[in-house]
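#structure-requests
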Amino acid sequence: MSRQVFLYDPPERFVAGTVGLPGRRTFFLQASAGGRVTSVALEKTQVAALAERMDELLDEVVRRTGGNAPVPAVAPADVADTAPLDAPVEEEFRVGTMALAWDGEDQRLIVEAQALVELDVDSEEDLVEAEERLLQDEENGPPMLRVRLTGAQARAFAKRALDVVNAGRPPCPLCSLPLDPEGHVCPRQNGYRRGA
């Protein structure tokens, strides 16, 4: 079966968003252009890591080019996107591997999100070899979302993604675990409740 690549070059919209209530949210990356929409599911930690690495990569591009790259220092207000995900949100696949790259010739940030694949291997060396084959197989690999963004689009994506991640349940001030609306059993209190 040939690899399915969902290419957006450039997207009209590329955002991170959620479906569901805090504590039970499902995270998505969603790209759209020309009437087509692609949504892929991923973990909250993957969204946070993608946004943080994207900002780091853009900062490095600015540093290496001496500020000559078309990358703003912060997300421009005119490209901010606070709208919800386009409905209906239909998951194409669950993300396993992500990659970021900077195309210096076209001045674009490339985001690749590849479907999660379970590998049946016997050793760590076999796993590394199988993963490398999958990444290099352009024709028969797992489905992939590939998005090419301008510097401004990338900064706006990263800002929104971090806002989405941080919009969940607030952390417990003692243990940093998420506080549930129904209550929270804090391991740091060990059953002890301070008096008022």
